[in-house]
Amino acid sequence: MFVSLIEKRRSIRKFQDRPVESEKIDTLIEAALRSPSSRGLNPWHFIVVIETGLLDKLSKAKKHGSSFLKSAPLGIVVCADPARCDVWVEDSSIASIFIHLASESLGLGSCWIQIRKRMHDKKTTAEDYVRDILNVPESLSVESIVAIGYPDEAKVPHGKEELQYEKVHLNSYGEQYFVTR
Predict the structure, then answer these.
(1) Exposure string (b/e) for 86-114, b if CB count within 10 Å is 16 or more?
(2) CA-CA distances (angstroms) from residue 64 to 67, 68, 102, 115, 130?
(3) How far apart are CA 32 and CA 145, in angstroms?
């Protein structure tokens, strides 16, 4: 089941004009809250955004790579508390991926929007832009936004022959790992 899920999952940037049901949103949040965290510290916080005006504003967080959020009926902003855990970036990234995989399992499409270390414009970071719109406290960092909705595009899964097996090594770097199947 898991392998077939990751084989077909693709980033979706076009969404139907249809809301995501609250039961599905609850499932997505449960998946995020169940994501592994270093030492069980769970530094993440999630902001569920369904208001179209806010999604429109958030779609302008970056010059490139966030505009598709405007057409999504749901965005989940993934934040974390760096004071709680030194590997908050990893923990919040894992939570983001759990949201993606849960979305796919529910028949939803999703796409990651990187916020941390990105710029809104020449003077303002994307993180500060999002922080201002959503009243995110200074004590939290914003890692990403996951745009979610019913897909309005179909993408063919990547074929196994497209996978970069040349980047897989056996026992030491430079020793090629060969797939047996």
Answers:
(1) ebbbbbbbbbbbbbbbbbbebebbbbbbb
(2) 7, 10, 26, 11, 15
(3) 13
- Average pLDDT, consecutive stretches of 10 residues, N- to C-terminus, the chain (181 residues): 93 98 98 97 98 98 98 98 98 98 98 98 98 98 98 94 94 92 72
pLDDT number for residue 28: 98
The length of the chain, given as a count of residues: 181
Helix (H, G, I), strand (E, B) or coil at 135: coil
Model pLDDT, residue 128 = 98
Phi, psi of 42 (to 5 degrees): 45, 65
Residue 111 · residue 11 · CB < 8 Å: yes
**In the structure encoding, which two tokens stand for residue 82, read together?**
């760096």
- Structural element, H or E, at residue 134: helix 126-134
Q: Give the separation between CA 11 and CA 112, rounded to whole angstroms.
A: 8
* Residue 147 CA from chain centroid, whole number: 7
Query: CB–CB of 5/97 below 8 Å?
Result: no
The C-alpha atoms of residue 84 and residue 103 are separated, in whole angstroms, by 27
3-state SS class at 141: strand
